[in-house]
Design a protein that fits this description.
The structure holds two protein chains of two kinds. Chain A is α/β, with parallel strands linked by helices. Chain A has 17 helices and 14 strands. In chain B, a hairpin with a 5-residue loop joins strand 10 and strand 11. Chain B has helices spanning about 30-40, 75-80, 90-105, 115-120, 125, 155-160, 165, 185-205, 215-220, 225-235, 285-290, 305-310, 315-325, 330-340, 350-355, 355-360, 400-405, 415-420; strands at about 20-25, 45-50, 85, 105-110, 135-140, 210-215, 250-255, 275-280, 345, 365-370, 375, 385. Helix content of chain B is about 35%, strand content about 10%. Chain B is of the alpha/beta class. The chains are: A alpha/beta, B alpha/beta.
Chain lengths: ~400, ~425
């Protein structure tokens, strides 16, 4: 099966997302879909987002990451004539994924009815901050606003300090993840029934899923208790400990206590924890401060990669607190060929991209071959003119952009 | 919240009707993914055993008074709409029944340590013999094979491994990560299900057996894309910015009027701090913020004239804004800012969401639990045609053992009784 075509090969998806939904279409690229990104003549705003590859801020790594493997079309939607061409393009698309404020969605501007007339079985997935229909539908916001509204932001931080959002725009990633799944449900349904659908994905609902356990709704409904931020760990045991050269996450999961004691004994660091009395959950709970101090005295003596290895080999859940530099140097990821080198002719260099989220075909199987994000309007001629038959004058008016 | 009971509403959109999943997943990362499959019509058969009780049946919350393993608030949420059978896979007979179930299933899913199913003779190679077009999902923390196949961890460790701790929080704190076991609710369930759904489409186009491996470490690292690419391309590690943004300013959560210390939801540990998130993306939004906060003169202050200038004076600016926001209620400030075109939201907690009429009507479900207790559960964020997708309650442990053995495997009641007595169905 290695080398078999990716599952969505032959499936074309029109991508009209902003940063709230752009991960959805990026994920569909990993599955083999042909994703066609629609840009205004002024260019996709994501092309101007930091971080940048170069000192003068011309090459956005944000854009390169999220739009890798896609194609690019431009179209001047402020001109009514463009709408007919958009609908002509839609006849060739299996799905449209769009995101942003409700008033800015492509389907709002063009009209879902017109789109359906062009392609009756079209799958339309609309990602908005607060849904298409609710009381907050007119409100706008990106990752921070969605993380705040959803309850996700509230849960992070010290109990006595301000709450913070997860790093790396995770509320937007959750919206994208759910929107990709929505698209796939729609495509499966389309394939089986020939019917289209419209799937509404409120980003705030997607991000609220992350509160499901820590702030489970039944804490409130059953006990009138609102779970608070809790700093450095799962009570009663802290889970982030200092290592000699950084930090590790280490947890004595239920059933792993004897393993942890053995690990500490092997390093002459168990203090009194080998006492059989500690096998009792309640006994440990009452002495969590002492246990934490013993573990900390142990971890502080060793480098994080050493702790990771000996703890895992002893059957104790442990991981180094990695930075991007640690991941880039990780022999495990290297051994699995996870990072993907991609040649950028315009930059004259290879960039190493993060690898695929899943392996298809066999353990450690290769991910999608990744092509660099397209230049603005790079596929204009191939699609508008060669495929859809747009004449030169219309092309010049509606689509022609300076290709970067 | 409306009561949807145990029956699927006739109007619900069920694209996965007819798809069967043999679900060995447990804890959260696997079950939350297969929950999505169940909610959209798949028959998901959760394999459980008293010899390895799903920890999430025990971790809470639990109702007041004595509680059973059927009454865990988190378990009943992440297992909506599934069936549960008891099957002890340490018995060869149990493994044989599992193989027979795989033969009549479209998808097999597991999130044990990498080679656990192989050791039960239920690995991909074993199961394709009985189901040649099987879709097989394995979700190890590291890998299905190789020296790290038995290494493990939970969301806390995956968060640390994948680098999320290193970009979350404030730069003067230790990188202690997030409150939730975040990857269990995001990267891992939803990368896995996306690959499974794509495999279903692929199978309809003639693909044979399909193996999917979601290494939870790799899967979670992949949602840190721009950060990783920034390092490999430039050698730069981004600072931990808290709620600030490298592209916009002001962009933070600001303190608001404290909530009353007592109230209907006040209880042990009920927090009273209130915050409002404000994320200004344009100069127009900046000007509107100044007006709402009663300081139109800030618009003319050269320190704040452009996003870049505001970023340079961010500490001063945040302090000025915070001095104003403490006079507002978070909800009222967010509403006023949104009305003025400024992206903003109150920093809600679980109590706020459960009190919000929109969340109550369109997101949370209130269900009669399997033993009569009433549960609140999160809805599916995917809304077909703008309507909330109905859900069914989670199963009692082993609730469908007899039904599945008789109807899917053709066992007689006597055979089932014998297997129960022998501990195979237990």
């Amino acid at each position: 099966m290695a080398g078999a075509p990716l599952p969505l090969v032959g499936c074309r998806v029109l991508d009209a997302t902003d940063e709230l939904g752009v991960y959805a279409t990026r994920l569909l690229v990993e599955l083999g879909a042909e994703v066609v990104r629609l840009e205004p003549l002024a260019g996709d705003p994501l092309r101007r987002y930091p971080p940048f590859a170069d000192a003068d801020g011309r090459v956005s790594l944000y854009h390169l990451h999220f739009n890798a493997g896609k194609r690019s079309l431009t179209l001047d939607l402020t001109r009514p004539a463009a709408h007919g061409w958009l609908n002509r393009l839609l006849t060739t698309c299996h799905a449209l994924v769009e995101s942003g404020p409700v008033h800015g969605l492509l389907s709002t501007r063009i009209g879902l009815t017109a789109m359906r007339a062009a392609r009756p079985d079209l799958v339309v997935v609309s990602v908005t901050p607060f849904g298409l229909h609710g009381p907050y539908r007119e409100r706008t916001g990106g990752d921070l606003v969605v993380a705040a509204h959803s309850g996700l932001l509230w849960l992070n931080g010290r109990p006595d300090g301000p709450p913070h959002r997860p790093g790396g725009e995770q509320a937007a990633h959750m919206a994208g993840l759910l929107a990709a799944n929505a698209t796939l449900l729609g495509l499966f349904h389309q394939r089986r029934t020939g019917q289209g659908c419209h799937l509404d994905v409120p980003a705030t609902f997607a991000a609220s899923l992350a509160t499901l356990q820590t702030a489970n709704a039944n804490y409130v409904t059953w006990h009138g208790r609102i779970p608070a931020r809790r700093g450095m760990g799962l009570p009663p045991f802290r889970h982030i400990f200092p290592a000699a050269d950084g930090w590790v996450a280490l947890t004595a999961l239920p059933g792993q206590w004897p393993n942890l004691v053995r690990l500490l004994c092997d390093h002459a660091a168990a203090a009194d924890l080998a006492d059989p009395a500690y096998r009792d959950d309640a006994y440990r709970y009452e002495r969590s401060e002492h246990i934490t101090a013993v573990i900390e005295a142990f971890t502080s003596r060793y480098p994080k990669q050493y702790l990771f290895k000996v703890a895992q080999e002893a059957g104790v859940a442990c991981a180094p607190v990695n930075t991007a530099a640690d991941l880039a140097a990780d022999p495990f990821l290297h051994g699995r060929g996870w990072f993907r080198p991609v040649w950028h002719a315009d930059l004259g260099r290879v960039l190493r991209y993060p690898g695929p989220p899943f392996r298809l075909g066999n353990p450690g199987g290769a991910g999608a071959a990744l092509h660099p994000a397209p230049g603005q309007g790079a596929d204009n001629r191939a699609v508008w003119v060669d495929e859809l038959g747009m004449d030169a004058a219309t092309f010049a008016t509606l689509c022609a952009t300076e290709v970067r | 919240m409306s009561d949807t009971g145990h029956m699927v509403e006739a109007s619900s959109w069920q694209p996965l009707a007819g798809v069967r999943v043999l679900d060995f997943t447990w804890m959260i990362a696997g079950p939350l993914g297969t929950r999505l499959l169940a909610t959209f019509g798949a028959e998901v058969i959760k394999v459980e055993s008293y010899h390895r009780v799903d920890r999430v049946r025990e971790t809470g919350p639990h109702p007041n008074g004595p509680w059973s393993i059927n009454e865990d608030g988190s378990f009943n949420d992440v297992n909506l709409g599934k069936k549960s059978i008891l099957l002890n896979l340490n018995f060869p007979e149990g493994q044989d029944l599992a193989r027979r179930l795989a033969a009549v299933s479209d998808i097999v899913a597991a999130n044990f340590t990498g080679d656990r199913l192989d050791r039960w003779h239920l690995g991909f190679a074993d199961l394709v013999k009985v189901r040649p077009d099987l879709i097989f999902l394995n979700m190890p923390v590291f890998a299905s094979t190789g020296p790290r196949r038995r290494w493990g961890g939970i969301g806390t460790h995956i968060n640390a491994l994948a680098g999320i701790n290193s970009v979350s929080g404030f730069s003067d704190d230790p990188p202690f990560g997030l409150g939730p076991l975040y990857p269990d609710f995001s990267s891992n369930p939803f990368h896995a299900v996306a690959a499974v759904l794509a495999a279903l489409i692929n199978r309809d186009r003639g693909a044979g057996a399909q193996f999917i491996e979601v290494s939870q470490y790799e899967s979670t690292a992949s949602i840190l894309g721009p950060t990783l690419l920034q390092y490999t391309a430039t050698g730069t590690l981004p600072p931990r910015l808290g709620n600030r943004s490298p592209r916009h300013c002001p962009h933070n959560v600001y303190p608001c009027q404290a909530a009353p210390a007592s109230g209907p939801t006040a209880g042990t540990g009920t927090p009273t701090d209130r915050w409002c998130a404000v994320a200004v993306a344009t100069d127009t939004e900046w000007a509107a913020l100044c007006v709402v906060l009663g300081h139109p003169e800030w618009r003319d202050d050269p320190r704040f004239a452009t996003a870049a200038a505001r970023r340079r004076h961010e500490d001063v600016l945040d302090a000025l804004i915070a001095a104003e926001t403490t006079r507002w209620s978070a909800e009222e400030l967010a509403a006023r800012l949104q009305a003025a075109g400024v992206p903003a939201a109150p920093v809600n907690h679980a109590g706020d969401l459960l009190a919000d009429p929109w969340y109550r009507a369109e997101y949370f479900h209130e269900l009669a639990g399997p033993e009569g207790c009433r549960f609140a559960a999160h809805g599916e964020p995917i809304r077909p045609f703008g309507r909330r997708q109905p859900v069914r309650r989670a199963p009692l442990m082993g609730e469908h053992t007899e039904e599945v053995c008789q109807h899917l495997l053709g066992l007689s009641p006597d055979e089932v009784n014998h297997l129960v007595a022998a501990g195979v169905l237990g």
